[in-house]
Amino acid sequence: ITLPKNQKTVNVALVNPEGNPCYFTFEIALKGTGESLYKSKLVPPGKAIRQITMARALPAGEYDATIKITTTSLADGSAMNGANVETVFIVK
User: pLDDT tens digits, residue range 38-57?
Assistant: First the structure.
């Protein structure tokens, strides 16, 4: 994922696919330190987050990161399964 350097507000595509039986919550964290750069509110099925404001801007470089996806039942709000997506941010 390519991000602009020294900018906290960046364009992304964090999508909860149409038809899912759950809300998604997205958290972006740096892999080495676990520092959380962003955490979303509940995202309903069929919706997406297209722009985020991170906790801090990143200088140019490459950063190993994890996008943590937590799921919550539409029916009763209970926790469901989740996933971690490993990625690299190329900041330039």
Answer: 999 999 999 999 999 999 99
- Could you tell me which residues are beta bridge partners of residue 25? 70
Q: Residue 16, CB half-sphere, CA atoms under 13 Å: how many?
A: 25
DSSP the chain: -EE-TT-SEEEEEEEE-TT-SEEEEEEEEETTT--EEEE---B-TTEEEEEEE-SS---SEEEEEEEEEEEEETTT--EEEEEEEEEEEEE-
The answer to whether the CB of 45 falls within 8 A of the CB of 28 is no
Which of 32, 82, 91, 26 has the alpha carbon at shortest distance from 56? 91
The model scores a pTM over 0.70: yes
Q: Say how many Å lie between the first and final Cα of the chain, rounded.
A: 11
β-strand partners of 14? 49
